[in-house]
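Q: I'm writing up a methods section and want to include an example of the input and output format. Could you take the sequence below and give the corresponding predicted structure tokens, formatted cleanly so I can copy it straight into the document?
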Amino acid sequence: MAHDLSAEAARALADEVLFPAANDIDAMPVLPRERLDLLAELGWYGLSAPGYGTDLAGAWPVLAAFAGGCLTTTFVWMQHLGAAPSCAFGPEHLRPWVDQLATGERRSTVVFAGLLPTPSVHARLEGDEWVVDGTAPWVSGWGLGDLVYIAARTPEDDVVWLLADAPTEGMRAEPLHLLAVNASATVTLHLDNVRVPADRETSRFPWSEWPARDAMGLRTNGSLALGLAERCCRLIGPSALDEELEARRVALDTGNADTYPAARAAAATFAVQAASALVVHDGSRSVVAGTHAERLLREATLLLVFGSRPSIRRALMTQLGAEGRRA
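A: Here is the clean output for your methods example:
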């Protein structure tokens, strides 16, 4: 069955379903599975799957629309999006998983800690199993899926990507209480002698190749700040902020590896500016917990650090007027 995964369909879903319930979701201890079931039913789990969804640039406005609808739902759902293309372009025996991932029959979260310059998750090959140890500081959607897609560092300083069942013996989740999107079931995940069959490996490459790949991928998470800022602008009504929003979007859409850090930082600071303007626009009721302005300001603050990199942090500190003094 073909699904409409266009930006227009995403905006309609965000406006009609996600946004009206966003404050209620924000107050819950854990995002209801029914919210994710709806995304699966409508085909959104296949957004990144070859043959189902769209290319990377086509996904950007979808992510923005969803983020402006309910950032908590978006956080959990987007953790899943890397697994299907990895299976599609990975080993032949994993190709049947693409359909299951694209339909949401299988649902994944992700561990990025093995990609860090100083990795905190390691893996070694023992016979026909990978043995994984370490700690992933941030894993969202824990308990809301059946897979965790793990990037781990090998003794040879390679990155190996593994699809592990979740939970698996040796995994221990430590819940985190977040400033925003707390219902995203974000945990610190401890991995102690976790064994993953070797045939669950989707790819392996030298870590030295990662920084260049990562630099080109910095545009994607900028969609979250754009979407949140757009929602604030719409709630305020026509203003000069609309032109600034478009400028921030163009800077990201036309950017490259060299300009993405500053463009990401500018989008994040603009989201805080737009959310702050919404607080002022709505007045004193904005300081009451459970209002859209109050929630969006907290979410904009969280996006200052979500998916950040040292280059983005430096740009943010400069834009916020807090760069260090030169000696």
